[in-house]
Design brief:
It is built from 2 helices and 13 strands, in the order E-E-E-H-E-E-E-E-E-E-E-E-E-E-H. By secondary structure, the protein is mostly beta strands. The chain has one domain: Metal Binding Protein, Guanine Nucleotide Exchange Factor, Chain A. The longest helix has 7 residues.
């Protein structure tokens, strides 16, 4: 499925193909969205096409600190629009075949998921106190889950061409 995305000011636009378009994993509130949570989708990196790339200068990227005690950085490099500051996607060389757009940057209608039975709520140990999980949430993890985005889509027969 081809996904189209953009920042708020629309100076940066992108397309990417995804066989895993369901937004099912919510993560890291401070480094990905600054809100209660952020949701990433997985796209195929070699299909990523960006227009307005001049607004994605290196100074508009961020690598989170995975471990504050050691200063170890997270592998994800997060890309932001240099004009409006919108977080667009993340890329990690460790998973070089994929790119991870923020669901909120996608303009294409995405397949719906049930927040109780299908959504994986991860990094719960870091969630804001005011964030309330849906009653009966089935997949809750203090850290990262035992399943990847791709594995979830395979298990739930949700892979898309």
């Amino acid at each position: 499925m081809e996904l189209k995305g953009s920042c708020h000011c629309e100076k940066v636009r992108f397309t990417v193909k995804s066989h895993t378009p369901n937004p099912v994993i919510s993560i890291c509130r401070k480094t990905d969205g600054g809100g209660g949570y952020a949701i990433n989708i997985m796209g195929v990196y070699k299909t990523l096409k960006v227009t307005g790339e001049q607004h994605l200068r290196y100074a508009k990227t961020y690598q989170a600190i995975r471990d504050k005690a050691s200063g170890e950085l997270c592998g994800n490099i997060r890309y932001f629009c240099g004009e409006c500051g919108c977080h667009l996607y993340a890329y990690d060389r460790k998973y070089a075949d994929y790119v991870y757009p923020l669901a909120s940057s996608i303009d294409t209608a995405l397949p719906p998921v049930d927040p109780v039975t299908e959504t994986y709520h991860i990094k719960i140990e870091d969630k804001a106190k005011w964030v309330v999980l849906p009653d009966g949430a089935e997949h809750v993890f203090d850290d990262y889950p035992d399943v990847s985005l791709e594995d979830w889509h395979i298990k739930n027969k949700q892979l898309v061409e």
